[in-house]
Amino acid sequence: MANSAQDIGSPQYPVALVVGASGIAGSAIVEQLTRTEGWEVLALSRNPVSGSTARHIGADLRSPESIAAALNGERPTHVFFTAWSRQETEQQNIEVNAGMLRNLLTALNRAPVEHIALMTGLKHYLGPFDAYGKGKMPDTPFREDEPRLPVENFYYAQEDELWTAAARQGFRWSVHRAHTVIGYAVGNAMNMGLTLAVQASICRETGRPFAFPGSETQWNSLVDMTDGSLLAEQMVWAATEAPGSEAYNIVNGDVFRWRWMWPKLAAWFGVEWEGFSGEPRPLEEQMRGSEDVWARIVEEHGLVEPDLARVASWWHTDADLGRPIEVVADMSKSRLAGFTGYRRTQDSFIDLFDRYRAEHVIP
After folding, report:
1. Which of 73, 96, 120, 290 lies at a CB distance of 3.0 to 4.6 Å from 155, suitable for a disulfide?
2. pTM check: above 0.70
3. Each residue of 75-95: pLDDT tens digit?
4. Coil, strand or helix at 329
């Protein structure tokens, strides 16, 4: 229990503060906790989480004054930090993203915080986007006890902020290193699930093949992914059941090859597919100029989001699928600690596509 709990007292029941609540991971945490009896849920994001019973808190994480004012009088016991702001360089990523976490931690200095769960990712092992897969990396599968790479990385800066605050304020912490996260969100900057769904929808509309955009290595190598709902389960488990303060990898638990998965995704959309053929075919090139096609699809099918940039993050999917290296993570650490959650990635994709269709996001 944080020492600051003595200042204002602890609530009689757990109060969750989900930061980045409208994103893939944040909305999944909100969904899980609002379905769990006994939790009060505070959803901090720019926009309210649609259809949620959580109490929305609007604030600018980049402004210490804004976040301090927004959280004045709030008494969260468990904090889930999933927010992220993409910047042009890694130094800017460090300044902005570590700064946002620091602003939040400062604003919570007198709150009765027991645990803070921080979402990061496998770039902890791969390096940041502008040094992606360059230099010496640990062998796969990635394990949590690997030393940090000798490069600047905003994940490292965020961990340092978390650990410093934990030593000062007395709360437990957990870090959750996810692979590519797929789950329900619109307007998210890193959303492979929706991006591939939009690619396939445009391909069906135009009659072009659903072409794999990535590298030969990614087409043929083993890979894993992270379902947003499973990430939420692990973060809640770490905050309420896991012993001590630890970092955990979080992936679905199965592995697959894109040469096996790609035809199954194409079949769901009813499109012809093409695999790797000689060289990568990035989505930023394949889909260039598709705004009018998407606008036509939206109008014909009565979809809810006409802005192609809010449903497709071509750059992020290109980065993930264009890797020239195998990327898989080991889950032994959290398994041995008692976390047994599992998803089959094929089901994660299909369930996600079904939901997007039901919500009129894709045709």
Report:
1. 120
2. yes
3. 999 999 999 998 989 999 999
4. strand
Listed residue (17, 140, 139, 4) closest to 67, CA to CA: 17
**Is the pLDDT score of 207 beyond 90?**
yes
**Residue 133 in contact with residue 325, Cβ under 8 Å?**
yes
Task: Find the domain containing 111 and state its range.
Answer: 15-178
Helices (H) and strands (E) in the chain, counts: 16, 13
Q: Which of 125, 155, 184, 248 is catalytic?
A: 155
Q: How far apart are the first and last CA of the chain?
A: 49
264 assigned to active site: no
> Based on the domain organization, do 174 and 197 belong to the same domain?
no
Judge whether 113 lies within some domain: yes
199 and 269 fall within a common domain: yes
Q: How many separate domains does the chain show?
A: 2
pLDDT higher at 90 or 136: 90
DSSP secondary structure, 241-256, as one string: TS-SSEEEEE--S--E
Residue 291's domain is classified under what CATH number? 3.40.50.720
